[in-house]
Amino acid sequence: MKLTYLGHSSVLIETAGHRLLFDPFITPNPLASGVDITSLHPDHVLLTHAHGDHVADAEKILKYSGATLISNYEIVTWYGNRGINHGHPLNHGGGFNFPFGRAKFVNAVHSSMFPDGSYGGNAGGFVIETADGTFYVSGDTALTYDMKLLADRYKLDFAVLPIGDNFTMGPDDAAIAAEWVGAKRVIGVHYDTFPPIIIDKDAARKTFADRGVELLLPAIGETIEL
Q: Taking every annotated instance into account, which residue ranges of this chain make up the domain Metallo-beta-lactamase (predicted)?
């Protein structure tokens, strides 16, 4: 599997011959000015919730790429009303078999509202199972005991977790989350974009290492093998 970090919480994961784009907030992010969204060409766009810092580029990307939107019912319906009908809705605890493998929508503790004030349903995360491996993208969330259930059900190759604190878990809670879900490798996201979520990256790496977890912080635009 290959993961390209696109800034904030946006990642592009190439697995089983498919390109999965999560939470595209790219063009409004000055830190990601070097990323050309027209070059991404995802097969699927997965949205964890409706906040602007996760959906800003979703409509444009969905329209030019023809990618299938995967999200909760409310988000898929909202985009459907804007002419994007190639969507598949999920709800918490539900999963579906897609061409790339299986996606399950799992709990997150966070709010969800579109920039225009529309209701965005309940925030969630995804567990993705493919022929190449299994991974967890938590979306924005607090630490929650529900994460322990994932370790009972899955053997994760890696997890994508927020580490910026203030709006989500910080490094301390995220390292515990990694331990609870059974992930030995974590890609940290949702940090440094805004002043309240600027972190000490070396300290964050040590926090994870103290729990036996490797925290990966790729540069924006960098692709890593997993």
A: 7-190
Identify the CA nearest to 104 among candidates 56, 156, 57: 156
- Name the pTM for this structure: 0.98
Q: Which domains are assigned to the chain?
A: 2-225 (3.60.15.10)
Q: What is the mean pLDDT of the chain?
A: 98
Residue 119: Cβ within 10 Å count: 13
**Which amino acid appears at position 150 of this protein?**
L
The strand pairing partners of 14, in sequence order, are 2, 19
For the stretch 174-225, pLDDT in tens is 999 999 999 999 999 999 999 999 999 999 999 999 999 999 999 999 999 9
Q: What would you report as the CA-atom Rg of the chain, rounded to the nearest whole angstrom? A: 16
End-to-end CA distance of the chain: 5
Residue owning tokens 């925290």: 215
